[in-house]
Every structure is written in structure tokens, then in C-alpha cells.
Design brief:
Length: 844
């Protein structure tokens, strides 16, 4: 320990003596380690971290997919992750291997609630509510922050309506007011008592950019949300997570759960036919670890995060090569010192340990700087990835595991860049200290130094090519013709259901909204629809054309009003669009897209033909009256997307259920087209809706351009970060090449002086130095180009319409690396050309 302390003190003195070297190394390390720690913070939060609950290892999820939100029918593969309420209750009753089995709403993010605190004059606000089973919090082993949590008695039909508020919503929206507990809140115009506050740090059963603000019992959903499917045995809408009893074997439990699922599904409509009985044998559910909750965001971001881990790792490798070069130069400069120490009896192992102590000290100090960079980098990443999110369950402050990761990475890098320089410096012979004034003419940089520069150049080229690929992919996505017009268009997301409207009241509401908005100056079109283009929503069904029972295909569908197509810029190419005359009592009609026509009609005229949902007596539900362009919905990547559009309030004759069971009648958005940009339109929109009904709130307001741009957030984030990392790698490689070239010039100063004394031109000296730098660059390119080609196949799945490396990207990246290399080499070359031969000879 005494020796270690001495080594640390000596290392600190040596680092203080060379502040320029120390600052360069620490900055390089902080950038390299910080980039990796920032990415690891996100990886840890999204992919590795468990829920903040009791004993997460004993939690098991029934299912392994992020299915959303309400589904029905049978699955060909037989694999289920969403379940009806009756199936959940069947599991709960017949699977005693679970201590607790909780159910939770799959698609709560698509069903906001309207909330207003009783006794206040504030307007109602749109918030996120999740409907859960009464044992939800007990299953996770949670204790309330204040008050109490939901219990089984709350989740009983006819029980007083209660809710638990999240800690984040309590602090953010109600300033932590203790009187909120036990207070009455009007949720979707119904009185609900908040009985408690969820624990701090609990964001729900899944990571989401819209975590729940209120947790409500499942049995209150039919009243609060007017959801007809809560007790529909055919509707699959619940996720299930359970806590298994100690000693339960997972293999037998898996078999039992599958058997129970087949028993529960045997009476469903889809499995009652002969074909259905065959499909029933495939029905199964995969039990997966539930400690991390419903892994929705994990599935969305896992591939991007793993890619960024590789990219940041390459940047760290370049940083290590750079620092190793600096240490090699420093070791050569201290060669005399090492010779003297060896002559005085120092063991080589002692010298290596001393030099490694310096390297490790630099690495640890760089790691501390890296944590600061990591905090700032994580904040930047969160803003880039979740720019519109109110609260994201990711803390930018480094956690203990991130600190441990940074510490381990610091030690690893310290060894990685410190061993070779320490070993080379320790090889100094004592006799070398006695030699002085010996002229050398060729002692430039070592082969190891040059190899490190070549490696840096190769890796920089690979990263720049990767940045170019992702930028090209983003450009292809953004330049795709969406068959939409976003100019002076605004999207207003609404939820009339949460405002207390029944389906029978909707037709009058929509006419009122159209009239009120048309009365505003500057409003040209008022489109109303179930959902809009380029948003994360989709309603679909299997359809068939009357007379073609053998041809069945999946198609998305939308309810829309007469102004809708004009409001989003979709052109009608045949027949007509939806008109004001297409009211609920008029004949049922539909407008289809060109892909729909291509699938079902080939070269025939589709106008006048009838189609409907696949099934008996439904194929004639709608008459086709028009065809529109293939506009992009949900994703540009979704090709061959069949769509049809029906009037807002029309229901086919085959629909026998009462109107109160049809949730698709509720509009999800208003599209406003204006004659000019209107900065005050959001305020006008809120005032207009509030004048119609104070509970009619704006869920989200944004321009159409913003909504479209949001669909490219993931690609934009990857393109920006790979460009950032590529630029950082290029900077480090440039510094490394400059350092080696400058060191070579310094070592060859006597030789250069003699060359110039015997008649060498300054231009030839510049060419000589630049030739060395360019040779290292050329070797780097020789290694980097095939590596770049090989890497394309690893990122092919994450880029859009790119199957091979574009020569322009490769040439551009090569030109950038070459320009950086020339810049790094020209400064030492000019310095070499300015050497005074007479002064050099006098020194010799």
C-alpha cells in the first residue's frame, strides 16, 4: 500500500508537470467514456432494469408480445399475449401456483381520460388513465406514498368509484396537495374518489412516454369509459402478470397455463367450427419473466440501442488508440529517465507498475469526467428521443450500476492503452543514458504508433460510412411522396367519449364542431376522423368483396366526414368522396384506396361494387363510391396497405349490436386547414371546444408537419447520433495522426536539417512528411473500405430501401477522412520545412 501511495503521488506530480498532455488525455477519455456511459444509461433503463417492485424475480408475464390494444378472432400461430376479462378470471380461479395474478389494460395510452378536480374553477384536462385489477398494486408488492392503494373490494361491480393517482401527477399537476387524497375528481364526467398516491418512482407496469396519471379499477371501465368489451368473452384487451409461489417449477406451470387457455377458448366463436377445433390445438401462451414489466418500449428501441453501443464502443477504441499514441510519445520523451532509473537498480516490473499507475490514474480521472459527459449526453438523448413527453421513466443521473459500469470501463481502458507504452518504455537499457549527442537520421514513429493511426483512420471511415447510410435512409423516408399536403394544416386530437357523449349524441356534436370551426376566420376545411395519417393508430379488419368469397385480405379503415380528404390533402382519383349527404340514415357507402382496387379488382372499375367484413352476410355492407390515392398511414414502410373510408356515423345493416356498443363512432381527431399559418390557433381551438362543452378537452395539438416528423423520430435520432459519433471519431483520429506526425518531425529534426543543408528544397521536405501521413491514411482506407462494405449487411434491417453501399457515401467519407489527414499532416510538414539548417548543425 505504501508503494502504491508513492506511485500515485509521483504520477500526480508527473501529470502536473505536463498540463497540455494531461488535459488532452482527460478530454479524450471523458468523451469516449462519457459517450459509452450515456448509451449504457439508456440501455440499463430500457433493457436491463426491473420494475421498482418487491422481489421482481418471482414475477411472470403471461405472453411475450406487445400486442395492442383490443383484438378478437383467432390467430393462425395460436400464440396469445392479450386476453378477455373472462379468461383472466378463469386463470385466477384455476391456477393456484400464482400467489397473485393481476390484469392491466393493454392500450391505455390510446384512451386518455378527462379529469377535473371537484370544487375548483380550473378547466378539465386530458390525462392518462389505466384500468387495472383490484390486486394490481398488491401483486407488485407496493406500498402507497400516501393514503391507500386499490384493493379487491374496489374492483367489484357497483362499488364506489375510486382511483389511485401517480406520484408524478400528484406533484406535477396538484403540487403535492395532501387534500387531494380523499378528494373527489370528475373523471370522464363521473365522480371518483382518489384514495391514495402511488409510490414515488413507480411509473406503472411498463416503460412508456405516457405513464398513467390515474389507476382505476377494471369494473369502473364500463361506466367511466363506456367500453362495451370489458366483459365480452371474444374481446382480447388485457395483459396479465402474476407472482408465482416459491418452489413452483416453470415447466409444469407452462403446460398447465396452456391447458387452461385451451379450455377457456374452447367456447369462443372462432373455435367452434371444425377448422376452429384444429386451430384450438395450437393455442398457447409463453410465460416470460415479468420483473421488467410489459416490454413495449424495449421492443421499440432495443435494436437502436444495441447499434449505438457498438458505435460508441468503436469511438472508445479510437480514443484508446489515441491515448496510447500519446503515452508512447511521452514514454519516448522519458526514455532517459527510465534508463537512469534502471541504471540505479530499478526493476522493470517496478517501472511498468509505475507507468501503469499513471495510466490507471488518467483513466479514473477520465472516468469521472466521463460521468459528467454521460449526464449531459443522456439529457440530450432523452430530449432527442422523447421531445414531447411530459415525463419519461428514465433518470439522466448516473445510477450505481452506471457508475460501476463507468468505473469498470475506466479500469479496462487504463489497462488497454497503458500496457504497451509501459512495456516499451521499460525496455530502456542503462547504457543509453550515457550516450548523448548521437545523431540519428531515421528514428521516427514506431511501427506500433503508425499501426494505431491506421486503426483510427479505418474505424473513422467505418463510422462515417455508417452515419452516411443512416442519413441517406432518413432522407429517403422524409422525401417519400406521402400523397398528403401538410401546408397550413393542424391536427387536434380529441376524446368525445371522455367528455361524456353517448354514441347517439355524436352526429349532432360533429355538426356543431364543423359549424363552430368554419365560423373562425381563416379556416378553410374542418376534417373529422377516427384517426389521421402518420399517427400511431390503426383500425383493421379482414374484408371480402361480394361475389369473391375466396379472396380475403386485411384492410385498415377510417371513419371520416365530408371535409376529411381535402383537409389532409388526399386526392379522389375516381368517383366521389364522402359528402354531407352521407348521414347515418343514408345508404352505406365507402371510399377505397388504389391498393384496395389493385388487390380486389385488377383492371375492373370498382365503383358500384359492394364489400364488407369477412363473414356470413357481411360482404355487401358497403357500396364503393370512390377511389383515393394511396396515402401513407402509420408508417412509410407499410407497403401494399389496403384502406377504406366510411362516413362518420354510418353503420352497416349487418351490425345488429346497439349503437352504444360501437366505439368506432367516436372521432379521435379534427384536421383544420387554414388559408395562412395561424400561431394562435391552439388557443382558439381550446376556446372553441370549451364553448361547446367544458369537458371537451384537447388531448394533443400540433401541426400536420410536426405529426409527420414525429414518425421519423427514431431514424432522426440514429442519424444524428451516428453523425455525432462519426465526427467525434474523426476528430480523435485527426489528433492522433497529428501527434504521430509531429513527433516524427521532432525526432527527425537533425536529419531534416542536414537534408536542407545539403540542398533539399522546402517543398521536398513538406512532400516527405506528407507522404508518411498519406501512407498511413492509405493503409487505413485499405482496411476500412472492405470493413464498411461488410458492415452494411448488419444495419440493412434498420435502414430504408438501402441494400448496398452507395458509392457516393463511400467517396464522401473517404474524402472527409483524407481532408482531415491532410490537415493533420500539413501543420507538422510546414514546421519541418521551416527548420533552420545552421541552427540544427550547431546543436549537433
Amino acid at each position: 500500500m505504501t508503494t502504491l501511495i508513492q506511485d500515485v503521488r509521483y504520477a500526480l506530480r508527473q501529470l502536473r508537470k505536463t498540463p497540455g498532455f494531461t488535459f488532452t488525455v482527460l478530454l479524450t477519455l471523458a468523451l469516449g467514456l462519457g459517450a459509452n456511459a450515456a448509451i449504457f444509461t439508456l440501455v440499463n433503463s430500457m433493457l436491463l432494469q426491473t420494475l421498482p417492485v418487491a422481489d421482481p424475480k418471482t414475477l411472470v408475464r403471461l405472453g411475450d408480445a406487445n400486442d395492442c390494444c383490443v383484438g378478437g378472432g383467432t390467430r393462425d400461430d395460436g400464440k396469445y399475449s392479450l386476453f378477455p376479462t373472462a379468461t383472466y378470471e378463469y386463470f385466477k380461479k384455476n391456477a393456484p401456483e400464482f400467489e397473485e395474478l393481476a390484469a392491466m389494460q393493454a392500450g391505455f395510452g390510446y384512451r386518455p381520460v378527462t379529469v377535473r378536480r371537484d370544487g375548483t374553477q380550473t378547466n378539465a384536462r386530458s390525462m392518462v388513465g389505466e384500468f387495472v385489477s383490484g390486486n394490481y398494486f398488491r401483486t407488485f408488492g407496493l406500498q402507497p406514498r400516501s393514503g391507500r392503494l386499490l384493493t379487491d373490494s374496489d374492483d367489484v361491480k357497483g362499488a364506489p368509484m375510486t382511483a389511485v393517482m401517480s406520484y408524478q401527477a400528484w406533484k406535477r399537476d396538484y403540487n403535492g396537495d395532501a387534500s387531494a387524497i380523499g378528494g373527489t375528481f370528475w373523471v370522464n364526467t363521473k365522480a371518483v374518489t382518489v384514495v391514495g398516491i402511488a409510490p414515488d418512482g413507480f411509473y406503472g407496469d411498463r416503460m412508456s412516454t405516457t405513464p398513467p396519471d390515474f389507476y382505476l379499477p377494471i369494473e369502473t371501465m364500463p361506466v367511466l369509459a363506456n367500453a362495451p368489451y370489458v366483459h365480452d368473452p371474444e374481446a382480447q384487451w388485457l395483459y396479465i402478470v402474476g407472482r408465482v409461489k416459491s418452489g413452483t417449477a416453470m415447466g409444469p406451470l407452462q403446460e398447465k397455463v396452456n391447458a387452461l387457455l385451451r379450455q377457456a377458448y374452447a367456447s369462443k366463436n372462432g373455435y367452434s367450427t371444425e377448422q376452429g377445433k384444429t386451430l384450438l390445438q395450437r393455442v398457447h401462451v409463453l410465460l416470460t419473466p415479468g420483473g421488467a414489466g410489459i416490454q413495449a418500449m424495449q421492443e421499440q428501441y432495443s435494436s437502436q440501442l444495441r447499434l449505438l453501443m457498438w458505435v460508441s464502443g468503436l469511438v472508445l477504441l479510437i480514443a484508446c488508440a489515441n491515448i496510447a499514441n500519446l503515452l508512447l510519445v511521452r514514454g519516448m520523451a522519458r526514455r532517459t529517465e527510465m534508463c537512469v532509473r534502471t541504471a540505479l537498480g530499478a526493476m522493470r516490473t517496478r517501472i511498468i507498475r509505475q507507468l501503469l499507475t499513471e495510466s490507471m490514474l488518467l483513466a479514473l480521472l477520465g472516468g469521472l469526467g466521463g460521468l459528467i459527459v454521460a449526464y449531459g449526453g443522456t439529457m440530450m438523448l432523452l430530449k432527442l428521443a422523447f421531445s414531447d413527453a411530459q415525463s419519461v421513466p428514465i433518470n439522466a443521473s448516473p445510477s450505481l450500476i452506471v457508475i460501476g459500469f463507468a468505473f469498470a470501463l475506466s479500469l479496462l481502458t487504463g489497462v488497454l492503452f497503458g500496457v504497451a507504452p509501459a512495456w516499451i518504455a521499460a525496455q530502456a537499457q542503462p547504457a543509453e543514458a550515457l550516450r548523448s549527442g548521437t545523431r540519428t537520421t531515421a528514428s521516427g514513429a514506431s511501427g506500433l504508433q503508425r499501426s494505431l493511426v491506421v486503426l483510427q483512420a479505418a474505424l473513422s471511415l467505418v463510422l462515417l460510412v455508417g452515419a452516411g447510410l443512416f442519413s441517406q435512409s432518413l432522407n429517403k423516408l422524409q422525401s417519400t411522396d406521402l400523397k398528403l399536403d401538410a401546408r397550413n394544416r393542424y391536427i387536434v386530437h380529441i376524446n368525445p367519449q371522455a367528455a361524456g357523449y353517448s354514441q347517439a349524441q355524436l352526429e349532432a356534436l360533429y355538426r356543431t364542431m364543423e359549424a363552430r370551426f368554419h365560423a373562425l376566420p381563416g379556416i378553410l376545411k374542418v376534417g373529422i376522423a377516427l384517426y389521421t395519417p402518420m399517427e400511431d393508430n390503426n383500425w383493421g379488419d379482414s374484408v371480402e368483396v361480394q361475389g369473391q368469397p375466396s379472396v380475403v385480405s386485411e384492410a385498415s379503415w377510417i371513419r371520416a366526414n365530408a371535409d376529411y380528404f381535402d383537409s389532409v390533402g388526399t386526392r379522389v382519383v375516381m368517383g366521389r368522396g364522402i359528402t354531407p349527404a352521407d348521414v347515418s340514415t343514408a345508404p352505406t357507402v365507402a371510399v377505397v384506396n388504389q391498393e384496395f382496387v389493385k388487390k380486389f379488382f385488377k383492371d375492373q372499375n370498382p365503383i358500384g361494387h359492394r364489400f364488407g367484413a369477412h363473414g356470413p352476410n357481411t360482404s355487401g355492407d358497403f357500396e364503393i363510391v370512390g377511389v383515393v390515392e394511396d396515402t401513407a398511414y402509420q408508417s412509410v414502410r407499410w407497403k401494399e396497405h389496403l384502406m377504406y373510408f366510411v362516413p362518420m356515423m354510418q353503420r352497416p345493416a349487418s351490425e345488429k349490436d346497439p349503437i352504444e356498443n360501437n366505439e368506432s363512432l367516436y372521432a379521435g381527431a379534427i384536421v383544420l386547414q387554414t388559408d395562412r399559418p395561424m400561431n394562435n390557433l391552439e388557443a382558439l381551438t381550446r376556446e372553441t371546444l370549451s364553448s361547446i362543452n367544458s369537458n371537451l378537452t384537447v388531448v394533443k395539438f400540433q401541426t400536420f408537419d410536426q405529426q409527420i416528423a414525429d414518425r421519423f423520430n427514431d431514424e432522426r435520432l440514429i442519424a444524428r447520433l451516428t453523425m455525432l459519433f462519426g465526427g467525434l471519431a474523426l476528430l480523435l483520429a485527426t489528433v492522433g495522426l497529428y501527434g504521430v506526425t509531429a513527433y516524427t518531425v521532432a525526432r527527425r529534426t537533425p536529419e531534416i536539417g542536414i537534408r536542407m543543408a545539403v540542398g533539399a528544397e522546402r517543398s521536398s521536405v513538406v512532400a516527405m512528411v506528407m507522404r508518411t501521413a498519406i501512407m498511413q491514411l492509405a493503409l487505413g482506407l485499405i482496411l476500412g473500405v472492405p470493413t464498411a462494405f461488410a458492415c452494411v449487411r448488419f444495419v440493412k434491417a434498420q435502414v430504408y430501401q438501402i441494400t448496398s453501399l452507395d458509392p457516393s457515401i463511400l467517396l464522401g467519407a473517404t474524402a472527409v477522412v483524407a481532408a482531415a489527414a491532410c490537415f493533420a499532416g500539413i501543420i507538422p510538414a510546414m514546421r519541418a520545412a521551416s527548420i533552420d539548417p545552421a541552427q540544427t548543425l550547431r546543436l549537433e
